[in-house]
Amino acid sequence: MMNIRFSRKQLCIPYALFLICFVVLPLAVIVYYAFTDGSGRFTLENLLSFFSNGNTIGTLCYSLVIAAVVTAVCLLVAYPVAYVLARSGLKRGPVILMLFILPMWINFTLRVTALKEILTVLEGNLSLHPFLNTVIAMTYDYLPFMILPLYTTLLQLDESLLEAASDLGAGPAAVFFRVTLPLSMPGIVSGITMTFLPAMTNYVILDMIYNSTYIMGSLIGSYFNIYDWNNGSMISLILFAVICIVTLITGRGDRNNAENRGAIL
Amino acid sequence: MSENIIELKNIKKVFDDTAVVENFNLTVKKGEFVTFLGPSGCGKTTTLRMIAGFEFPTEGEILLNGEDISRIPPNLRPINTVFQRYALFPHLNVYENVAFGLNLKKLPKPVIAEKVRRVLEVVDLEGFEKRKISTLSGGQQQRIAIARAIVNEPDILLLDEPLGALDLKMRQEMQLELKSMHERLGITFIYVTHDQEEALTMSDKVVVMSDGMIQQIGTPEEIYNEPKNAFVADFIGESNIFEGRMAASMTVEFCRTQFPCVDNVPKDTRVDVVVRPEDVLITEPGKGQLTGVVDSVVFKGMYYEITALCGENEIVIQSTRSAQTGSTIGMRIDPDGIHVMPAGVLMNVFDGTITKDGRAAFAGGEYACDLTQLYEGSHRSGECSVITPDGEEISLAGMEVTVEVPVKAVSMSDEPREYRANGNIISFIYKGSHYNYTVRTADEEDFVLDEDDLWNEGDHVSLMIPEDQIILKRKQGAV
C-alpha cells in the first residue's frame, strides 16, 4: 500500500484556498468598489456622501439602537433561562434547553412567517408598531445564540466558588453580583457578539414582517438592488469598521476574564 | 477555656434514602483542634458541610455557643471554611480574595487594608496583594485560602482535606504550620482528612468515622493505644488483628495460646484482639509464648518488618533486630500490648420472607433452607408447607421471618447465579489467618463474612450460603 503522508502545511492548503476565495477576495472586491466610481476611477466620493447624507447616518444610528435593544432584551431573557437550566439541577434541564434551541432547526423563513401570523393576530396591522415588531422578531430569532454560550459558562461554574462566597458572608444577592455574574462574563460577551452583530444587518426579517424600519442591511440592499455597487460597498465597509470596533470593545472586556474563557465562540 | 463551642446532637443526614451520617454526637471545646478521620465516603465531609451550613441535617441539631444553628444559612454563621481545592475566586486578585469577607462586612477601607496586610504576614505571603490567583503555586493558593478564611476571625475554622492536593514535603511543612497557626490564633479548628498520620500529628481530639458513624473519639494517643474496635485498629497504624475468646476474665486466648491481659472481660466472650507490630517481642525459640517460622523480612529504615507464621496465623513484627527467613523464632507479647475489644459481627441478621417454592428471600437473593425450623418438631410436607407434630399442615408462602446467617457460613464467588444475593465489597480487615469482608448489596443490606483469599474493595461478588447454615425464626406477631 502506498504510504501517503501530509505535512501540516499541506493540510492547510484547502482551508487557505477557501479563505482566499471566500473571504480575502470578496473583501478586496468590496474595497475596490468602495473606492472607485462607476467608470472604475479612484474616488473618495462614496465615503464623503455617506457622511454628508443625514439619511444614511440616521440609519446607522438607528441600527445601532435596534441592535443594542435587541441584545439587551435577549440578555435579560436568556440569562435567567440559562441560569435555571444550568444551575438549579433540574432533571429535565437538557430537554428544556433543547426546546429553546429547537427553533434553530426549523427553516428561517418558516419561523418568521409563523411569527408574523401570530403578531398579526395579536396586533392587527403590523405596520403600526414597527420598532416593537422589529425587537420581538429579532429577539425571537437570536435568543438561542444568547442562551447557548450563557448556559455553557454557567454550567462550568464551580459550585465551590459559590459556596466559598456564601461561607465568607455573602447573601444570595451578593453571591450573584460578586461571583456568579463576573464569572459568567465570557458567556455574556460571546452572547452579545453573536446577537449584536447580526441584529444590525439582518433586514430580511424586517422585510418579511412588512416592516418599514430601515437598518444598515436594508440600506446596503437597496443600493445593490439599483446596481449602485460602489456606494453599497462603501456602506458595507463602514459597517465592517463599526463591527470591528464593537468586537474590539467587547473583546477587551472579555480579556479581563481570560482565565475563565470557556464559552463557545 | 473549657466551655463547649459547638455541639452536634444526634445528627443524621439522608441523601436519596441512604443515611450518610447517623447517630453523630460530638462536643468540641473552644480552641480545640478536632479531626474527623476516616476512609473516603465515611461521611466526614458531609458532617463538616453541615457545620458550615452547606447542608442541613435531616435530623438532630447543631448548637453553636448553645444556640441551634442547624437551619441557618452559611453566610450568617461565624464559621469559615478552607476548601479542598481552595475555591479561590479566579476573577479577583490575592488582595480582593482575602478582603472578600471584610468587604461584605462594610468595614472601612483602611481597616480592611491593615487586616489583609497582617493576615498575609501570618501566611508568609507579604507583597502578593496584586498577584493573580492563576500565577500562584498550589502551596501559595493553599495559604491564600487559609488567609481568606482566618481574616474574618471566625469562631470555628473548618478545613476540608486542605493538604490533599499538595506533595508530601509541602504537606508535612503545612501540617506543622497549621498546628502553630492554631496555637497562635486560638481559633477552634475542625479538620477533615483520610490521612491517619496527619490526624495523629495535628489534633487534640480525633473522631474516627466509618460508614457514616463515629467509631471512636479520643486523643491521638487513645486512638492509637486503645482502639475501640477492629476497624479503628486496622485504620490507625499497623496492627495484627486476631479472633479470640476470653479464657478467664483477665486471660485471652488467641493463636491457640492463652495470654494474660489487662482487660477485664467475662469468660467465654468472643473478642477481637489487636496487637501492634512493635509490641511483639522476638525471643529465643521456645522461650516465648508463641513459636513461629519467619516468612519474610523487609528492611524499613528504622526497623525490620518481620512476618512470622504461627499455625494458620500470620504475625507482623517490627523489630530493630533482623531475623533469618525460614528460621524458627519465639514471640512474647506483654499484657499491656494486648488490646481486647468486643468481637465484630458474628451473625448476619436479615428480614426475609418465604417464597412460594420454599426458599428464604432476603437481601436481594433467595436461598434454599430448612423450613422445619420454624415449627419445632415439624416435617416438610410440600414445597413450602410443613406439618406440625399436632398434624396441622401450615403453608409458609409469604411468611415474614428473621434470617440469621453465621459469618463463617457465607462464602463469595465472582460468578453471579440465579437466586444468589449480589453485592460489592465495601471494606475488609485482615485478621491474622483470614480476611473479614463486608459486602453491601444493591438494597443496602450488609453481609459480613470471612474468606482466606484476598479480594479487592469494590469487587462485585455473589454470595453462597449452605442450606443447613441458614437459621430461620418466626417474627413475633406473624402467622
UniProtKB/TrEMBL annotation, chain A:
Domain named ABC transmembrane type-1: residues: 60-250
CC terms in the record's Gene Ontology section: plasma membrane
Key words of the record: Cell membrane, Membrane, Transmembrane, Transmembrane helix, Transport
Location(s), subcellular: Cell membrane
Organism: Candidatus Mediterraneibacter stercoravium
Name of the featured protein: ABC transporter permease
Membrane disposition: Multi-pass membrane protein
Transmembrane segments: 12-35, 55-83, 95-114, 233-251
Protein family per UniProt: Belongs to the binding-protein-dependent transport system permease family. CysTW subfamily.
Pfam family, one: BPD_transp_1
A GO BP entry: transmembrane transport
